[in-house]
Design a protein that fits this description.
- It is a single chain.
- The chain is built from 14 helices and four strands.
- By secondary structure, the chain is mostly helical.
- It has one domain.
Length: about 325
């Protein structure tokens, strides 16, 4: 079932530019949705699978983007070496922070990750000589794959789609693996997971680092696609957006994270007339989801659809004119 859903998503995502060639909506908004979906699925591994809250995930996204931007524009490094350096830097930071941070639980962990995100954002703003400060870094070189230059919106859409599908496939495979089951056991009860001889410290570190690396590579691709980065793209508000995407879709649901990313990314376009109230609207969505759809909007709608299909299947089994079982 998981693989069937993957092929359906792949068909839709790769088929859109064919059905709607040179569509601004597909190429620009679609690329943003795909990058956000990769980020949301990575965060879902941490929050939905392992149950570890993070309110500073935009920090890893920003580190990956700025590592690529700085090394390619200031030091003339190859984009792929710069992306690898960003991965290495994020690995070291995530691994170094994982053990002390993930000893915390609940709102203590949320506040700690929030502080991490704010510190990274302040660093990007204040270190003007290195990061360009509030003005950011421009003229980031274009990316080429096997001589195929990603110099158009259409090509960037395809590249973003392939990266998102890779993250989706990896997340689905992880869900059914031994490691994925260990993450879910950790989410359910850390004590019970320890009783099952799961190294909970190692498991939390692994998922934290994996989520950070997905964000890092997404950030590097984002930097090359935009050819410009600034601290505004990696603020605390964007971290809250990512959390909203995961919660809206449904914690622990990979397809839910994809649904949440599409919904939240398109929401500003639908509410462009009231853009000054975006923060309030995201807060209201998060509150309403937790209150009325605790499993997430996507998961709730999917369960409702399955229930309706189950009822129809049961009625059709009796056929017209047949009676049900006697009570």
């Amino acid at each position: 079932m998981r693989h069937r859903g993957f092929y359906v998503v792949a068909l839709i995502v790769l088929g859109l530019p064919i059905l709607f060639p040179r569509s601004y909506f597909v190429e620009v908004n679609g690329t943003a949705i795909l990058f956000n979906a990769a980020l949301a699925m990575g965060l879902n591994l941490l929050m939905g699978y392992a149950g570890q809250i993070s309110l500073g995930h935009a920090a890893f996204f920003g580190i990956g983007a700025y590592a690529t931007a700085i090394l390619t524009t200031r030091y003339g490094l190859s984009p792929y070496l710069a992306m690898a350096a960003g991965l290495l830097l994020n690995f070291c930071i995530a691994y170094g922070l994982a053990r002390p941070l993930l000893k915390l639980k609940g709102h203590y962990l949320a506040m700690a990750t929030l502080g991490m995100g704010i510190i990274v954002h302040i660093f990007l703003v204040q270190t003007g000589r290195l990061t360009g400060g509030p003005d950011g870094i421009s003229n980031i070189p274009n990316l080429s794959v096997f001589g195929w230059s990603l110099n158009t919106d259409q090509r960037w859409y395809v590249a973003a789609a392939l990266w998102m599908l890779f993250v989706l496939k990896m997340s689905l495979n992880l869900a059914g693996s031994r490691m994925g089951r260990a993450f879910r056991a950790l989410h359910t009860s850390e004590v019970a997971a320890q009783m099952m001889r799961i190294d909970t410290t190692s498991a939390k570190t692994q998922v934290f680092v994996l989520s950070a690396l997905i964000a890092s590579l997404t950030g590097s691709l984002f930097a090359h696609q935009k050819a410009f980065v600034s601290p505004d793209s990696f603020s605390f508000f964007f971290s809250i957006e990512l959390v909203t995407m995961v919660v809206l879709g449904g914690l622990g649901s990979t397809y839910g994270a994809l649904f949440g990313a599409a919904f939240i990314t398109l929401l500003p376009e639908l509410l462009s007339s009231i853009e000054n109230y975006e923060v309030m609207i995201f807060g209201l969505i998060l509150m309403a989801t937790m209150m009325f759809f605790p499993k997430g909007l996507y998961v709730t709608l999917l369960e409702l659809l399955q229930r309706q299909m189950g009822i129809k299947r049961a009625l059709n089994a009796w056929g017209p004119g047949k009676r049900g079982p006697k009570c």
